Structures are given as structure tokens and as C-alpha cells.
């Protein structure tokens, strides 16, 4: 074969460079037969915003290949019923925030908002450090290394609560979240139009969600989360009332967290709002969180369970159950010692002194219930500071909440001893 002339060789090289693969998203509506492919940094945003992909209830999918994507010109991704986002794996596909959310009740930016049934998120990393993304928006400053939200499930957002919504069947699998203060949120709040404060509305119909192989940064990264899974937070009840806020009739909510191993720094700012899993109900609904084949390790309060924290009509009669099977819950106070060395003026002792709180901040009186069931599940506290009060594995709220809070253990170990009564009969609640 004759040698290529210099100009022909340069042309061939240029052709090879121009045809190099760019990050791409296969965009399909499986019910209508529509299919196209988008390429570039904003390929995912263009797919989700495609006018042919807006048929609520159709099986629609955005399948992203390896690469780095962002939110393009989209404020956020609002995923209605039947929409799936699938990547090539958490180690190969990354979605970057384009601009951070700095105040949830003013504006939610660059978040995945689940607002319909049978939504699937799988096989990608969400990175909240917009400045590291491929095409940051002008609103992403040089110091914006984090955002507040990654995945939020809500019926609505604003000043007026709409009708109850269907968010059943959500699946999150093989998703990693970095540089986001609270990676997964499903909670409700109240608006204040006079103050310009928007609300997140969580008046859901019955649902069953599955979260598997969820990941965050490890301790070596040094990043500190506020909470990992927030299904209400009794430490901030006015702004995080939990799923079902505003619902007037009984509903059943179930969240399965499976095959998930988290060992990270938890406790943003002073740590008073921290937790790996926080769950609360302030409505006549039942919320069950099933943790299976998993390990959750955090700084102080690993799990916080509450019901009827807020007073007023419609806040009582809620049932909150945390069931842990074939798993471990570990509060590692040694992390607090390292934090104290970083900030000697900070609090000497962690704000929490138990790994699991059952009925925290709940009000006595009424039919509400909180319960933890541990089946082949160990709970322990490691490395507490000698100057601080001795911690407990589980805190049940004492005599004040004895009629509302309960703990059952079956083939499980608690170290140190729990603070409050514990049942040892077989735990059979389903």
C-alpha cells in the first residue's frame, strides 16, 4: 500500500479526531416508539427536556454512556411517571450540578426531582461540586464545592399544596452522591407567602420504594454530610415534617434500603441536625424503613425515629417503624475528636449520645407510635470521649414516651447497653 502523502495524513488524523466519540445519551419513549441520541455536556438535559419525552406515564428512558454530564440550561430535572435515568455505572457516568442549591425554600437548582410513579435512577454518580463540572452556569462561583440536594421526592414545590400524588415504585440502584449535604430527601414543610418561603409538599399516596447499593464519599475524602437519607427530621420539625405532611387519611409508606454500606463523616456545622437515616411522621400515616444486608456508620446519631413532634390537628396517629435485618449500625465518636482538633472552640461533646433514637422529640399522649426492630442487627458506639456522658446504643425516650416507643431485638447485640426497655421476644411486625 503506498505511503500517505503528508496532507492526506493530516486529513486522516483530523478526521479521526473529529469522529472521536463524545458522551452520549440514548433517548427513548418505549410506548410511542420515539428514539433519538443526544451528545455533549448537556445531552441528558436535552433528552429530559425533549418535547417528545413529555408523555406522563409512558415508559421513557435516558440511557447515558460513560462521561461527564451536567444540567445544561435546565433549572432541575423533574421526572414524571415512567421516567428512567440509567448510566453506565457509578464509576463511569457522572452528572454534575450546574449551579448549587443554597437555600431550599427559596430555589431548588440542579436536583433530580421525582414527582411521579415508577421512576428509576441507576448507574451514575451525582456530584454537587458545580465548579468541577464540564459547563458550570454563571451562578456557580469559584468556591461552590457543594449543593444542598441531589434527589428529592415531592408532590409539589411552592406556596400552594396540590392534590395528593402517586410516587409509588421508585427505584434507586448503584447511585453515588458526592458534595451534597443531604443526598436523598422526601419530606414536607409549610409555606410562608408573607416571608417568601416556599414549601416542599409530600402529600403522597401509598408507596413502596427500593434503594440499593447507595454510596457517598468515604472518610478519606473529608467531606461532611448533614444527613444521608432524610424522611423527615425531628431536629427541624417545622421545615422537615416527613412524608405524608398534609395527608388527612391513613396511608402506608415503605422504603427498602438494601446492600448499602456507608462509612462517612456526618454532622454538618454543629452536628445538631445530623443523622445517616432520619425519619419522622406528623400525619396519620405509617412509615416503615427496612434496612437489609447493610452497614451504616456515622459520627453520632445514626438513626433517628420520631412521630408527632409537632402539635396541632392532624399531626398525631402516625406510626414510624425502623426494621434492621442482617446489618450493623455504628456511631463512631472518634470522628468528633478529630473535628474538635480542627475547631478547638467547638463543642467538646457530640450533640447526640446514642446510635439510635426511638421517639426522639415526640410528644406524649395520643395514639402515635415509634418502634425499632433489630433482627440479626448489631448496634454499637465506638470511641466515645472520656469527658463526655457515657453513650447508649439505643435511646427510647424514657418513661415520658414509654407508651409510644418500643424496641425489639432478635439475635442482635447492643453495645453499650440501651437506655430504656427492650423486648427480646421474636419481632414479627410487618
> What's the pLDDT, averaged over the residues?
91
Number of helices: 3
Low-confidence stretches: 1-20
Q: How much helical structure, as a percent, in the residues?
A: under 10%
Q: Separation of termini? A: 74 Å
Shape: globular
**What percent of residues are in strands?**
35-45%
| Classification by helices and strands | mainly beta
- Biggest pleated sheet: 18 strands, mixed
Q: What is the CA-atom radius of gyration, in angstroms?
A: 23 Å
Can you count the beta strands? 31
Describe the model.
With 430 residues, this protein is mainly beta. The chain has a domain at 22-308. Helix content is 7%, strand content 39%. It has three helices and 31 strands. The chain has helices spanning 6-18, 43-49, 334-342; strands at residues 24-29, 34-39, 60-64, 67-69, 77-79, 83-86, 93-96, 112-114, 120-127, 147-153, 156-158, 171-178, 180-185, 199-201, 207-212, 215-216, 224-225, 227-231, 251-258, 261-263, 265-266, 275-281, 285-292, 295-298, 303-307, 319-332, 354-358, 369-382, 392-395, 405-410, 414-415. The strands form four sheets. The chain has an 18-stranded mixed β-sheet that branches. It has a nine-stranded parallel β-sheet with strand order 5-8-10-13-18-22-25-27-29. It has a two-stranded antiparallel ribbon with strand order 11-14. A hairpin with a 4-residue loop joins strand 1 and strand 2. It is globular. The termini are far apart.
Question: Keyphrases for this structure?
Answer:
globular, single chain, disordered N terminus, 430 residues, 9-stranded parallel β-sheet, mainly beta, 7% helix
Amino acid at each position: 500500500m503506498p505511503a500517505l502523502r503528508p496532507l492526506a495524513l493530516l486529513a486522516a488524523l483530523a478526521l479521526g479526531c473529529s469522529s472521536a466519540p463524545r458522551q452520549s445519551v440514548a433517548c427513548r419513549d418505549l410506548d410511542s416508539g420515539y428514539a433519538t441520541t443526544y451528545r455533549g455536556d448537556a445531552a441528558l438535559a436535552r433528552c429530559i427536556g425533549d418535547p417528545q419525552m413529555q408523555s406522563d406515564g409512558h415508559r421513557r428512558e435516558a440511557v447515558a454512556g460513560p462521561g461527564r454530564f451536567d444540567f445544561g440550561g435546565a433549572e432541575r430535572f423533574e421526572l414524571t411517571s415512567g421516567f428512567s435515568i440509567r448510566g453506565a455505572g457509578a464509576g463511569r457516568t457522572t452528572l454534575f450540578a450546574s449551579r448549587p442549591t443554597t437555600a431550599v425554600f427559596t430555589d431548588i437548582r440542579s436536583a433530580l426531582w421525582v414527582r411521579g410513579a415508577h421512576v428509576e435512577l441507576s448507574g451514575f454518580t451525582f456530584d454537587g461540586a458545580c465548579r468541577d463540572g464540564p459547563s458550570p452556569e454563571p451562578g456557580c462561583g469559584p468556591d461552590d464545592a457543594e449543593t444542598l440536594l441531589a434527589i428529592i421526592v415531592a408532590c409539589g414545590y411552592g406556596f400552594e399544596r396540590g392534590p395528593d400524588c402517586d410516587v409509588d415504585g421508585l427505584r434507586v440502584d448503584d447511585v453515588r452522591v458526592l458534595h451534597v449535604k443531604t443526598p436523598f430527601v422526601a419530606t414536607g414543610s409549610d409555606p410562608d407567602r408573607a416571608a417568601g418561603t416556599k414549601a416542599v409538599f409530600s402529600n403522597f399516596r401509598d408507596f413502596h420504594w427500593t434503594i440499593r447499593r447507595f454510596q457517598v464519599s468515604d472518610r478519606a475524602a473529608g467531606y461532611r454530610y448533614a444527613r444521608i437519607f432524610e424522611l423527615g427530621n425531628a431536629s427541624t420539625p417545622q421545615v422537615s415534617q416527613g412524608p405524608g405532611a398534609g395527608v388527612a387519611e391513613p396511608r402506608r409508606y415503605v422504603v427498602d434500603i438494601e446492600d448499602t454500606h456507608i462509612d462517612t463523616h456526618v454532622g454538618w456545622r454543629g452536628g445538631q441536625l445530623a443523622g445517616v437515616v432520619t425519619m419522622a411522621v406528623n400525619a396519620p400515616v405509617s412509615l416503615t424503613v427496612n434496612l437489609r444486608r447493610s452497614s451504616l456508620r456515622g459520627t453520632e446519631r445514626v438513626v433517628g425515629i420520631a412521630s408527632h413532634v409537632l402539635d396541632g390537628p392532624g399531626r398525631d396517629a402516625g406510626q414510624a417503624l425502623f426494621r434492621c435485618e442482617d446489618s450493623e449500625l455504628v456511631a463512631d465518636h472518634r470522628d468528633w475528636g478529630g473535628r474538635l482538633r480542627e475547631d478547638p472552640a467547638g463543642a467538646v461533646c457530640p450533640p447526640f449520645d446514642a446510635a439510635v433514637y426511638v421517639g426522639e422529640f415526640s410528644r406524649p399522649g395520643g395514639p402515635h407510635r415509634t418502634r425499632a426492630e433489630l433482627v440479626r442487627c448489631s448496634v454499637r458506639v465506638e470511641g466515645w470521649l472520656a469527658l463526655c456522658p457515657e453513650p447508649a446504643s439505643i435511646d427510647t425516650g424514657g418513661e415520658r414516651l414509654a407508651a409510644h416507643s418500643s424496641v425489639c431485638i432478635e439475635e442482635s447485640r447492643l453495645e453499650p447497653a440501651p437506655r430504656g426497655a427492650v423486648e427480646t421476644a421474636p419481632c414479627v411486625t410487618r
